[in-house]
Each structure stands twice: as structure tokens, then as C-alpha cells.
Amino acid sequence: xxxxxxxxxxxxxxxxxxxxxxxxxxxxxxxxxxxxxxxxxxxxxxxxxxxxxxxxxxxxxxxxxxxxxxxxxxxxxxxxxxxxxxxxxxxxxxxxxxxxxxxxxxxxxxxxxxxxxxxxxxxxxxxxxxxxxxxxxxxxxxxxxxxxxxxxxxxxxxxxxxxxxxxxxxxxxxxxxxxxxxxxxxxxxxxxxxxxxxxxxxxxxxxxxxxxxxxxxxxxxxxxxxxxxxxxxxxxxxxxxxxxxxxxxxxxxxxxxxxxxxxxxxxxxxxxxxxxxxxxxxxxxxxxxxx
Length: 291
Known about the structure:
By secondary structure, the chain is α/β, with parallel strands linked by helices.
């Protein structure tokens, strides 16, 4: 199969390097100095117990050509639609597409604009670009979560497992997506809003932490998804993290970069309004962070 991986950051770069070891034809898409480094030296993967270099075929998205059987979008959520548009001429109704971007409505976004087969998905991995061309993965956490079209999920499962990458296909994909989203959404927003680490936010603003988590859980419940147990679980996980652990949105905020504010904060506010759910704390954060 011919596989496109759009975005070669911490997630996409890691997937590209491993999937390129299989019999599949993998093409990665990136830009700038990171792309230049990959084209010259390959993608270097650094794990706790393993380091290797994989010479992945990498190019700019504007140069995408041919046909792709599978497309994995591993870009920031605000780049999802433009990334799809850039590669849309290389796919059709038979193509399987999915997004590992942050958020719980990425599949809906893709279904609205595409005739391709859309699989709902999220991924658990701790990885980042350490320097141009180098992806650093921390710990042994990895799981690609898939749901929706059964045959397409099984195809993807086979592809991932051929690269020794773990896949789960839960019975309730929406609940599985929200279980990840509640933690990421709450602490991305709170760390950026207070300009503090996750643990610092828990120490200094625990009431707000509980309220924001509860608002997200309430929005999910209004959609027919019960993740009430995740409120306390998320707090316990947050408190157990290293003291300086934070979020990518907090880092983007400090560096003055564009943030995934709409997918991680605005979505909760809009869905709260649509379902008549009070999201007072999240609205306050959203208003303060909008640039």
C-alpha cells in the first residue's frame, strides 16, 4: 500500500520511520529546515532503549503526487483542512484517511469535506522534535486508537502491527477519544492561561482544574458520552507528573506561536452553548487566550 504521512513531527515522524520499515510505500510530508534535514540524513528516532535512522521519502506537501491508499494526518488541528486540500487530488473514495491531531471532532471535519473513508482515531505517545530531523520518544507509551469503518480499521491495524506498533479498536470509539481529550483539553488550556506547569496548576488552582474538567465531562455527557470517572482520574495523573511537565499549547503560548485553541478550548465552549451546558470557566479561558 502507498501511505502518506502528512506532518513529520513527534507523532508523524515516529510513525513514518517505523512504517517505512515495512513493505508499504511510505511518503512523508514536512517543510522548512526539518524537511531539509530529513532529506539529507533521514529521520533519526531516539527512544529510551533504541536509536536508529530511517531514510524516509520526504517532500513538501505541494509536491504530493500519485495515488495514496492511506493518509495519516499528523499536523496541528488548525492545519487539518488545508493539509487535506493540498493532498486531495491524490486520494479518492477508496482511500482510508484519519487524523491524529488533537481534538475529538477531527473525523467529523474530514467527513464534511471528503468522500474518502474516514476512520476516527487518536494516539497515545510522548514524542517531540528534539532537533531538525530528530524525533525523541520518551517512555514506552504507544497506542493508536481506531474506530468506525470495521474493514478499514482492520486494514490499518494490520499495517500498524506489521511495524510492531500497538493498535486498539475499542467498542465505543467516541468514549475512547474523550478519555484522552478531557486531560489534554483541560491542561492545555489551564497551563497556557496561568502560564504554569501542570503540577503547578494543580497546586495553585485546584478548584479551577476540577471545574474545567467537569465542564468537559458535562459536554461529553450531553453528547451521550459518560466520562465522569475521568475527572478525578485526570487530576491524579496530573499530580503524578514531573514538576515541570507542561503541554504543547503552553509552549506555543510562551513562544507566541499559533495555538490549537479552537480544537482544545473553543470546541468545548461551542458544544456547551449548543447543548445548553454551562462552561463558565472554559469561556473565561477561551476569551483570555484568543489572539
